[in-house]
Amino acid sequence: MERERVWKGEASREVEISFRRIKKALEMGNITLCIKEIMALAMANRATDIHLKAHRIFMRIDTVMYLVLDDIQGAAFISLIRGFHALTKGPQINQRKTNTGSFVHEALAVSQPGRNVSGKLQVYKIACRITVLPTTTGIMAAYIRLRDSHRIPPLDKLGLLPEDLEMIQRIVIQQYRGMGVFLVTGPTNSGKSTLLLSILDETYKKAGGGISVATIEEPVEVIDEKFAQISINSEAGITFSDAVKDILTCDQDVLYIGEIRDQASAKVVFRASATGHLAVSTLHARDTLHTFERLRDLGISTSEMSGHLLGIAAQRLLPRLCPKCREMYDASEDIEELERMGYAGFKNGDLFRRKEGGCEYCRGRGVRGMVTVLEILDVTEKDFRLALSEGSVSMSSLLELSNKQHMRTLFDSGVRRIRNREVSFKDVASSVHQL
Ligand SMILES: [Zn+2]
Question: Residue 271 burial by CB count (10 A; 0-12/13-18/19+): exposed, middle or buried?
Answer without folding.
Answer: middle
